[in-house]
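In this supplementary section we document a worked example of the pipeline. Step one takes a protein sequence of length 221 as its only input; no multiple sequence alignment statistics are reported here. Step two produces a three-dimensional model, which step three serialises into structure tokens for compact storage. The input and output of this example are shown verbatim.
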Amino acid sequence: MDRLYRQFVRPGDLVFDIGAHVGDRVAAFRRLQARVIAVEPQSALVATLRLLYGRDRDVTIEAAAVGRQAGVVALNVNIDNPTVSTASSDFIAAAAGAPGWHGQAWPKRVRVPVTTIDALIARHGMPAFIKIDVEGFESEALGGLERAVPALSFEFTTIQRDVAHLCLERCGALGYARFNAILGESQRFAHDEWIGKDAIARWLDGLPPEANSGDIYARLG
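The serialised model returned by step three reads:
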């Protein structure tokens, strides 16, 4: 993970970790001596982040979801598997009966505040890298970004390729021209060279359903 993120993050850089969950990426960014804004809407996971990083002056924890505009959203909480809690009802519908998603349930709903990436930039400054992992809400998060940062990543799932395509279109509109991807938690790029938006879209469409999920990376230039 450190080797992967070292391509985007240098000591002293600012990083946004949107959907910080239990902080594994926060740990990697801190090992790279980056300053981190960790954004997480789930109260239990926010408590974990504060336990782990509350005394670290270079980590700021924002207890919020990230969307297209500021406000409030209903968060569907998966009590047994909190890392797939989601603000997207479409994500829950896509997971129903899908391979690899059997038994997942979201029995609890809580209302959480929503901020935007632009609002985070206004408060904390321009990041060198943004990681977005918000379970089907990725295109909504990117909808709240009006000016490109040097590089970002967003999670995709094979049950919601349409969301990934929306993210790619938004990235294209922001000026991102080079893309790569990682399957699952391999931390290794699927392509030896960075490729264009249309090529990464074709790669995404060609994945078998059992590929399940991964992250698409976008960079300027």
